[in-house]
Amino acid sequence: MSIVLDAHHEEDHHHKETFITKYIFSQDHKMIAKQYLITGLFMGIVGIAMSLLFRLQLAWPEQPFWIFEALLGKWAPDGVMDPNVYLALVTIHGTIMVFFVLTAGLSGTFSNLLIPLQIGARDMASGLLNMISFWLFFLSSLVMLMSLFVEAGPAAAGWTIYPPLSALPQAQPGSGLGMTLWLVSMTIFIASSLLGSLNYIVTVINLRTKGMTMSRLPLTIWAFFVTAIIGVVSFPVLLSAGFLLIMDRSFGTSFFLSDIFIQGEVLHYQGGSPVLYEHLFWFLGHPEVYIVLLPALGITSEVIATNARKPIFGYRAMVASILAIAFLSTIVWGHHMFISGMNPFLGSVFTFTTLLIAIPSAVKAFNYITTLWKGNLQLNPAMLFSIGLVSTFISGGLTGIILGDSTLDINVHDTYFVVAHFHLVMGISALYGLFAGVYHWFPKMFSRMMNKNLGYIHFWVTAVCAYGVFFPMHFIGMAGLPRRYYTNTAFPYFDDIANINIVITIFALIAGLAQLVFLYNFIHSMFYGKKTVQNPWNSTTLEWTAEIEHIHGNWKGPIPSVHRWPYDYSKPGYKEDFVPQTLPLKKGEEELQH
Amino acid sequence: MTIVLILSILILVTIAIWQITKIFELSQPAKINDSQIADNDDNNTQGKLMFAFLAFIYIITLFSFWKWGDVLLPEAASEHGSQYDSLMWITFALIFFVQTVTQALLHYFTYKYRGEKGKKALFYSDNDRLEAIWTIIPMITLAILIFFGLYTWTDIMSVEENEEALVIELYAQQFNWKARYSGEDGVLGDANVRFLQDFDGKNIAGIDSTDPNGFDDVVTTELHLPVGRDIIFKMRSQDVLHSAFMPHFRAQMNCVPGMITEFQFTPITTTYQMRQKPEVVAKVKKINKIRVEKSKNLVANGEEPLEPYVFDYLLLCNKICGASHYNMQMKIIVETPEEFEKWINEQPNFAESIQ
């Protein structure tokens, strides 16, 4: 295999690349990674900006804001936001953040960048499919953004788009053309995700360099690999749910609809059930949490080991817990549906499987903490974000024990308690993973370094604000305030928690500002950052043996072969505190990986 | 309230000032280090900041409990409420303990082992016994939680039809609730949205007029419950998904078009008794203080002042259902059986209301 690739690579050198083949329709995985990252960051700006808008509304519901009218136009006459638009904002915020930023932006970027570089391959198994995958993602982003501009507004049924609300334009204006575009966009997105995932799986299985056994794969690759498998297993189910919903919406079938009377009219639907949709949706929806989270954990494993100058503690346990999480993630979806009307016995089954998933998660958290123990921690921005990730992963994960328990879920289901929980455990954690990855591999992507001090400011303001936003949210949730409420002023009962909403919004606004620091740092460093050396972090993995300048094929000479596992940091018997994977074992040296 | 704001802003400003001075210091031409590589000074400061961050997590936790602890879980008013609450507080105590310890270890290690040039880390890659410990301990803890959780769950969720129970249908539509009582025969008449337009739209819950059981059914817009009596709720929806959420009764169930869902509980405290409870009195007082403040502003702008708040049990919609989702509510009144009988007898039944 590698011989064929080498020959192919030689040929490539004679190609004259045009601007279009190099920067736009590129088949080079490094360029595609950058394209994913930049598109993802742009979508992130849109998604976060939306959250700031509805946070303003929640904190000061009686106050008009000129910015609403400036940005939302006729949907916010005199600066007063329309309730439908509030729902549209939370819906699109959720969709964009979960799928476009934390799935495509995170997984797309780092799987593409790191899989070939860390396993020692010249490129992805199929550069063409990889390119198509990105452009489908780009197209789906465009369609999603387009849906913001339709007359009746974008989809507004929540990011889970439960029918009948999402199926009937009579129920909500956003369920008209806006919802159609949402479904079209997600269909394209899923096609993109599947092409990407299949490519990652094939590449990891087939294109590992000599000596790169599965047990020598860096944990990043394990995470991306397993994530891709989860994606391939679960995304098609969402696709089928989407198709059935399209059938119900446009062709008069009754998969999810039955016995409906709306706007003075009895509809013809009979025999379907929205609960069926919920099952199909969450069969993807829950694994999706791990599609978002596992790559972030993989990045964290790599960043923490490198910067602690220590082997990751319990490599085998880490791999086992990734596999366990992947398996369990496909059989826990029902915990989103404890009170959906499904048989309570099923609820107890899902409680059991859900709480089981806490075990591999706990193993991972403890292993990270032990990796820090007696390390020589290099506290650069990437490392801070990784440690921050472990912190929010624990804080957010623990409340999962409450939500995963069907009994306790009764009173906190769909309240702000849930919002606090999943934002900490998957939203903030995955974002931290994304940031850690960008700070750590920026030199690999752009051959330059980012500014450290701006990175520190970015981390500290974000870290303080993340807790400032989501910690108080647990309280308003436990008080019984449902999520997706346009305002809580309709209930005098909640008047005493209005001030908590103000605190949350202030923290959210500051956190939003802090992301500008990151953006400035990112863009500025891309052009004016200090040139990097080949291996700035003294890392052991293969990507740092590749050329600094991006060339098609990654290595000028032959692909290096691998002789040891990726975590030989501070190994006794070596002068340096890292031993690259390419260095053969010394005579009598044991490959300590257990 | 203002304290937390000032405190957090102070922290942020301190960090910002420190960072800015640091930038100026580093931008001295002699020792430019604009790369990301952390030097000894960085490791030192960042390590200490991480330790300070641990303090921040603890402070924000304690502060929130001190300041807002009173809003956590409304007063329970159903028979299974205390069971629910004790499970909640046990779980809470557990996660509180784990959170405190693990965050301490994480941030303390970051501080303690902050990097130093020339130091070498300990090569320590695995320990089967440690791995076993932190696999088995969570396993046992979770097994106990699962056991208690499932026991309570089965107890709460098993709906047992019985003679004494009062059967009430909760009927959801965009954007209000209705309750249907089964009347003297104790049986709810069949219903379907297809009957909604019968009798010039007076059939507001879609009762089937060919079913004799339906004529004595009573449809109301307030939910009255007799205290101490087992109540079986049958939920229906006429348009989209809704969720009947009654936080004081630790009760919630989705209302699904095309099917009937169920929930059962026994209210144990009347609205009147609840209003006398010191916790509720304190809460109402607090809310009214806020409302008086707000009213001052309203009156100054020439608007009506807010009405004073009186405690009532709530039924909220807790599944996104459209524009007025945030205001889909119904008043619940728990009263003595005598009061309940009197009230229900005053309501017109289906046969009367369609005339």
Shape of chain A: globular
The percent range for strand residues of chain B is: 15-25%
Number of strands of chain B: 10
Oligomer: heterodimer
Give me the number of helical elements of chain A: 17
Mean pLDDT of chain A: 92
Order of helices and strands of chain A: HHHHHHHHEEHHHHHHHHH
How much strand of chain A?
A: under 5%
The SS-based structural class of chain A is mainly alpha
What's the SSE pattern of chain B?
A: HHHHEEEEEEEEHHEEHH
N- to C-terminal distance of chain B: 57 Å
Distance between the termini of chain A: 30 Å
Q: Please outline the major beta sheet of chain A.
A: 2 strands, antiparallel
* Integer-rounded radius of gyration of chain B: 29 Å
**How many helices of chain B does DSSP assign?**
8
Strand order of the largest sheet of chain B: 3-2-1-5-8
Structural class of chain B: alpha+beta
The biggest chain-chain interface is: A-B, 147 and 130 residues
Provide mean pLDDT of chain B, rounded: 89
Uncertain segments of chain B: none
